[in-house]
Amino acid sequence: SSELTQDPAVSVALGQTVRITCQGDSLRRYDASWYQQKPGQAPVLVVYGKNNRPSGIPDRFSGSSSGNTVSLTITGAQAEDEADYYCESRDSSGNLLVFGGGTKLTVL
Amino acid sequence: EVQLVESGGDLVQPGGSLRLSCAASGFTFSSYWMHWVRQAPGKGLVWVSLISSDGSTTKYADSVKGRFTISRDNAKNTLYLQMNSLRVEDTAVYYCARRGSRGSDGPFYFDQWGQGSLVTVSS
After folding, report:
1. Surface-to-core class of residue A81, CB atoms within 10 Å of its CB (0-12 exposed, 13-18 middle, 19+ buried)
2. Element at A66 (helix H, strand E)
3. From the DSSP assignment, how many helices (H) and strands (E) are in chain B?
4. How far apart are the first and last CA of chain B?
5. Tell me: the pLDDT tens digits for B23-54?
6. Cβ of B98 under 8 Å from any chain A Cβ?
7. Per-residue pLDDT reduced to its tens digit, A53-85
8. Does B118 contact chain A (CB < 8 Å)?
């Protein structure tokens, strides 16, 4: 089992706001990153650090953190946002890296 | 344009060996830490291994420690993963990924990924 815990599946109505969460003790000490993966494709970085987006990522994607939980929020979800989302950070020792189990986002 | 291109994936029997390669282009390869991440069919992403920019530091997930070896050739802009004593549970798409950062203290993130190379371990 992963040291970072995500809900397996989340759904959102088109145009609405959705929050995807990731929990883990290491998140109290280390920043996390979020990746979007569509079927048959490599992951793509969407948010990193406290709340940073790479160039080319729409501003409807944002990140936040509180205690042992980090969140990815999509404000005004679009059909093309339907994908798997993974958080990533350090493990509890701080020496290795770990991904969350992933959240499958369905846009209704 | 930054590119990472994996190769070497194949069908191999349990107990066998395989070496993956990741050819990098479009950036100064020797300046970046590099990683391998794998994804079993229908499953999530799993971090496998990292190597520092100069190759002096390597780390491994417990599931592959002692069986896999990460290395790099900065003159050839290529990352490698030598996989020995392969098990059925090593079956996965293996991605190489570049570790980016906004400064020496982070934050850190995977900002470039290859397209993946499929390793199938089966008798």
Report:
1. buried
2. strand A61-66
3. 0, 11
4. 40
5. 999 999 999 999 999 999 999 999 999 999 99
6. no
7. 999 999 999 999 999 999 999 999 999 999 999
8. no
* Helix locations, chain A, DSSP H: none
Interface mutation vs chain A, best among B58, B109, B115, most A CBs within 10 Å: B109
What value, to the nearest 5°, has the Cα angle with vertex B55 and ends B30 and A26?
100
The residues, any chain, with a CB within 8 Å of residue B105's CB and separated by 6 or more, are none
- Structure tokens, B56: 């002096």
Please give the structure tokens belonging to residue B102.
């906004």
What are B34's two structure tokens? 């590099």
Place of tokens 């229908």: B42
